[in-house]
Write a structure and sequence with these properties.
It is built from eight helices and seven strands. The radius of gyration is 18 Å and the shape is globular. It has a single domain, classed as NAD(P)-binding Rossmann-like Domain (Rossmann fold), CATH 3.40.50. With 251 residues, the chain is an alpha/beta fold. A seven-stranded parallel beta sheet has the order 3-2-1-4-5-6-7, sandwiched between helices. The longest helix has 25 residues. Helix 4 packs parallel to helix 5. 44% of the residues lie in helices and 16% in strands.
């Protein structure tokens, strides 16, 4: 039977949790890197005889996480899995306020979680799996806000724009490698998660777009985490995944 390994960040709740649940249902082994442990994932994996390792990690300190991932992957047999995939899903939304109203620590933390961590984890993943025989993929979860500016979301927009461009660079690099990884940065649409609650709770005097987010919820325009996860994993499973490094589930 084919074996597949997927590494997911931010898998303890929201769309990350939904992706982890659906991947377990599809028979994948998982490594979940999140701030908190999720007991339900472990129970599901045990019941199905699968592997589901969970690391409680704060990706605001990404260097130890990347080093640990590289060592863990290097210890796995290179021929065990038909495919190995890294999904950089974890994200941190700073307060919805003008950049000048945010303190340095908030900005730095958002940039570390949203951009530095995916870059370091991707580097570790590519280095550790270079000699693996299975198909290698990296899926970076981006955002429409990485492709259009929004007031009072400067750090988040900048990090996601940087993630998109980083993905373009890695795709060019991997295209020339033997068994090069397929890489894509995907905007998953607007999802009904805690992040949306945070945006709807913004102060209109500081966050001029708050009404748009309130309206999307009122009009039923948000995808459920489970539906969004299914769409994202559907893109990941497509034979042409990685042919375009910048994608959107709504395209």
């Amino acid at each position: 039977m084919s074996k597949h390994l997927t590494i997911i960040t931010g898998a303890s709740r929201g769309m990350g949790l939904a992706m982890a649940e659906q991947l377990l249902a599809a028979g994948h082994d998982l490594l979940c890197i999140s701030r908190k442990h999720n007991d339900s994932l472990g129970a599901r994996a045990t019941g199905n005889g699968q592997r589901c390792d969970q690391w409680p990690v704060d990706l605001a300190e990404p260097q130890p996480a990347a080093a640990r991932l590289q060592a863990w992957l290097a210890a796995q047999p290179a021929t065990t899995y038909e495919s190995v995939t890294l999904i950089n899903n974890a994200a941190l939304l700073p307060r919805a306020m003008p950049t000048g109203a945010l303190d340095a620590a908030e900005i730095a933390q958002a940039m570390r979680v949203n951009l530095e961590a995916p870059m370091l984890l991707t580097s570790a993943f590519l280095r550790a799996t270079q000699a693996w025989t299975g198909q290698r993929k990296v899926l970076n979860i981006s955002s429409g806000l990485g492709r259009r500016a929004m007031a009072s979301q400067g750090p988040y927009c900048a990090a996601k724009a940087g993630l998109d461009h980083f993905t373009r660079c890695v795709a060019l690099e991997e295209a020339g490698q033997p068994n090069g990884a397929k890489v894509s940065s995907l905007a998953p649409g607007v999802i009904d998660t805690d992040m949306q609650i945070q945006l709807r709770s913004g102060d209109a005097s500081q966050f001029p777009d708050v009404g748009n987010f309130i309206g999307m919820k009122a009009n039923g325009a948000l995808s459920s985490p489970a539906d969004a996860a299914a769409k994202v994993l559907g893109v990941l499973a497509r034979p042409d995944f990685g042919s375009n490094p910048i994608t959107d589930v709504r395209d």
